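Minutes, project huddle
Topic: does the predicted pose make sense with magnesium ion bound?
PN asked that the exact inputs be recorded in the minutes so nobody has to dig through chat later. Recorded below.
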Amino acid sequence: MRTWLLDLDNTLHDAMPEVFPRINREMTAFMVRELDLSEEEASALRAHYWQRYGATLLGLIRHHGIDPHRFLRETHPFPDLEQLVRRDLRLVHALRRLPGRRIVVTNAPLHYASRVVRALGIWAHIEAIVSIESMSFAGRWQPKPSRPMLRRLLARLRVRAADCVLVEDSVENLAGACWIGVKTVLVTGISHPGTQRGGHTRAGRSKRVGVQVQSVAHLPRRALRSVHRPT
Ligand SMILES: [Mg+2]
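Predicted holo structure (tokens), as shared on screen:
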């Protein structure tokens, strides 16, 4: 049986117009408060940590001893999340028809991810949500694209890498999965190279990630064919 590992933001829904700008604003405000920086300095440091570590949180833990749980709670305040996340019936139907296990794997916190999954109307078609809180081992946070984390996740799910497909908008995350033998699908329709949260172009690496689909709504059709290992 195939196991689909589905990224959340910019894969199952479009976080670009409302959600990411707000998270970025809240992270910057958090850093202004906690690190006593100007807004400009905080914003630059946030972008730097995102690029260097793949997650702002890792830089804040490593260099400033920030409490990760408090950071995740305070930077994802969405009383109106259900209004910002658009339900797409094509996505609901596609996930229902996608053969195999379907697991959301996201570098976002669980309280936020579970609300997005509910707001998208796909809760019933998802077996589990693996959030950033469950990507820490022996006191070390290892979000995507950490290969040790992915290996541990596959062991926990009792699946072989060759039976898994990671579906993602992030080329970096796909490259990490590809390295340990997980098949990969790049979702191109929402986030484009150069417009990701880090703001830097990653187009050069996209050739390595194999199958591309514009939207997860197109997956079942592609799933009927074999998902090829990238060459
Ligand atoms: Mg994403």
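Observations noted during the meeting:
- The mean pLDDT is 89.
- Strands lie at 3-6, 101-105, 128-130, 136-137, 140-141, 164-168, 183-187, 211-213.
No decisions taken; revisit at the next huddle.
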